[in-house]
Amino acid sequence: MSRRQYDGSFKLSAVQLANKSDKPLAEIARSLGIHDSMLRRWCHQVHQGGPRVFEAGNRVERSEVLQLRRENRRLKRELEVLKKTLPLLDHPEK
Questions:
Q1: Model pTM greater than 0.85?
Q2: How many CB atoms lie within 10 A of CB 60?
Q3: Which pLDDT tens digit goes with each residue over 25-58?
């Protein structure tokens, strides 16, 4: 069974509806045919990243940022290893 995917405009519309309505979030989610935790997560994402968070380019950028962070951590670890071995290379034992 595959997961349903919702486009950014649907997510943003759902969040705007949740923000403007006096109805409970669970009721709004039910009327949209989604789980309330999903709507809650979308609301949180918009609160953290603004209304443009669901644009297609942002997903690609987020993926690139995560990849760059992983690479940065790896390079920092490698640098630490090199720093520890450098004194051994400068003063070889006789």
A1: no
A2: 10
A3: 999 999 999 999 999 999 999 998 887 787 766 6
